[in-house]
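stuck on this fold:
=====
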Amino acid sequence: MSLIKIFVQFFKSAYYELTKVTWLSKKEVVITTAVVIFFIVMVSVFVSVIDLLLGVVISAIL
């Protein structure tokens, strides 16, 4: 087989596999995105508070 035929066969099989995927609805994508953003904000606030507290403790010690 030529290289072009191999590429064409690959993309055909990849497209076929993508037709079998169950995609999320727009509502599900929006909700899960909001949850991820919420947790990212919460973790960043937590890490910032810990960093601030450790900075205060270290500066008090030194």
In short: Residues 23-62 form one domain. The mean pLDDT is 95.
